[in-house]
Amino acid sequence: MVGVLHSSPHTNGDPNAIEKMENQKTLIYPKGFNITWGNDNRYWRLPPQSRAPMKDSAAELLQVSWLEVTCSTDNVEVGKSYKVGFNLSMTAAAFGWKGCNVYIMAKIGKAGMFVHKKVCLDTKEKNFDMPAEGLIITVKPPSSSPGDSHLYFGMYEVWSGRWKGGLKIHHAFVEKIN
């Protein structure tokens, strides 16, 4: 059909939804996430597109069988190590998480090799970081794409085929390790 616009069911992160803090920590708020199926309100409830403070918002997973939330930052230095993860909470109606492994994965450069941690989200904690001890990645000079030292990372559960919901993602974090 001519003239029909198709919008993507996925959200693309806004690079302005990143806060670089003085303590060598970077926070990426929900508007900065790339979320598979994020533009479909049957699956996700996202913060409104207003100029409201980003700190008070969360991306709420209503129900999905394919969980993929990613983000990136260039606020890293070659030769330094960083802890990455997500700040989360579960709603009272959370479901599908018992025995469900979620992976936090990170890489340097688009062609980089992933490092990962497997975490079971079978919790009812009000607010927690995942992984609890963080995933550590060291920024090495990229060999395949010179100059691409972006840190790409995400949260994934795409293998079980199980429906899950009731997860709130408050922010992602990148913290330089001294």
UniProtKB/TrEMBL annotation:
Superkingdom assignment: Eukaryota
GO molecular function terms attached to this record: carbohydrate binding
Protein name, UniProt field: Protein PHLOEM PROTEIN 2-LIKE A9
Originating species: Cucurbita moschata
Gene from which this protein is expressed: LOC111434093
